[in-house]
Every structure is written in C-alpha cells, then in structure tokens.
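Morning - flavin mononucleotide inputs below, output right after.
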Amino acid sequence: MADPLATALTGRLGCRLPVIQTAMGWIATPQLVAATSNAGAFGFLAGAVMKPAELGEAIARLRDLTPHAFGVNFHSFQPGAAEIVEIILANADRVRAVSFGRGPDAKMIGRFRDAGILCIPTVGAVKHAEKMVQLGCEMITVQGGEGGGHTGSVPTTVLLPQVLDAVDVPVVAAGGFGDGRGLAAALAYGACGIAMVPVS
Ligand SMILES: Cc1cc2nc3c(=O)[nH]c(=O)nc-3n(C[C@H](O)[C@H](O)[C@H](O)COP(=O)(O)O)c2cc1C
C-alpha cells in the first residue's frame, strides 16, 4: 500500500512527514527549526525579524544542527531584504523553501525557482492564491482565520476548499491545526499537508 503520508509536500521539501512548522518571530530559532527537521517535518526559520547578518549566522548555525533541508521566512519589505534574498540564494543547497506574505515579484520568485528553492506564500484569500500562482509560486499555504487572523478572518474549513478548487498547485492547509486528526482532515480535503505552530 502506498504511504498515505507521502504527498507533494514531502516530495518537494524532502521531509518524511507532510507537516510544516511555520515561522514565528524570535521563536523559530535554529534550535527549533533543526528539532523540527530532525523529527521528520519541515521547519521554517524566523528570518522576517532578523537583520541580514543575524540571518547569515542563524543559517550557519542551522546547517550545523541538522543534515536536513529547511525553510526561511522573510518579507520583501523588511529592512535589508535585498541582502537577505542573496543570503538565502547563497545557501540554496540547504534552503529548500521560502515563505512570505505579500512581497516578492515574478522576477524574485523566478530567481528562487531557478535556484531550486520553492516559494510557498501564505495567503488568506482565493484571489491572493491565484495571484501568487500567476507570479510563479509552485505551492501555496492557505491560512484561515484560526491562524491568528493575520491573513484574514475566513475560516480554514471555508477557505481551503475554495483555494483547492481555484489553483492547480499543491496546497498546504494552515490555521487551527495541531494534531493527527487535523492532518488527516487536511489531507481528506485534498491538501498536501498542514502548516502549524508547534503546540505542546
Ligand atoms: C508567536 C507567533 C509569531 C509569529 N510570527 C510570524 C512571522 O514572523 N512570520 C510569519 O509569516 N508568520 C508568523 N506567525 C504566524 C504563524 O507562522 C502561522 O502562520 C500561524 O500561527 C499558523 O496557524 P496556527 O497558529 O493556528 O497553527 C506567528 C505566529 C505566532 C503564534
């Protein structure tokens, strides 16, 4: 029988489990991201709150802490963003994905794609998902209002099927997930996995 946990997410990100640890400013440190990736999921480093030099140091530390690939979260409007993009690209052998809200244009997304880095924006509306795919993103995280409301108030259970019907790239479900039941539900919807903050 085929492994039900082998999805487009595990295939594209090279992890064992279809689970993403989302970035949290000041919390998604190299230690947390390495622990996530070493446990079989895929961790994102909280680059959106780092200066370029800090990010360079954090990536170097992370390279030592895990043999696995990992992701970096950043915003294209944060101070030093252009330098941050270059640091990420220079580490393309280990940085398998970037996550962001709004920001990168088609040119920047193309540069990541050419370097083998998957762009996985977090969106909270169907039109934003469609726009990101148009710009060249090859995977999308759809986050419902349960994810703290940062990306809008539409509940995950309403938004997720709408986005799954609207785009033809793999979709990750976020907002309110925290256990195996949630993962099973997201996969049943047709998502390729879940993205969540680690909960104890
Ligand atoms: C403490 C905290 C810090 C966060 N910081 C960031 C951040 O720096 N960048 C970002 O894109 N999302 C950030 N988020 C949002 C999460 O990455 C994620 O999208 C969301 O929490 C997922 O929903 P869940 O909490 O229901 O699992 C943060 C969330 C929390 C709880």
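Note: Helices lie at 8-13, 30-38, 52-65, 81-90, 106-114, 126-135, 156-166, 180-189.

O.
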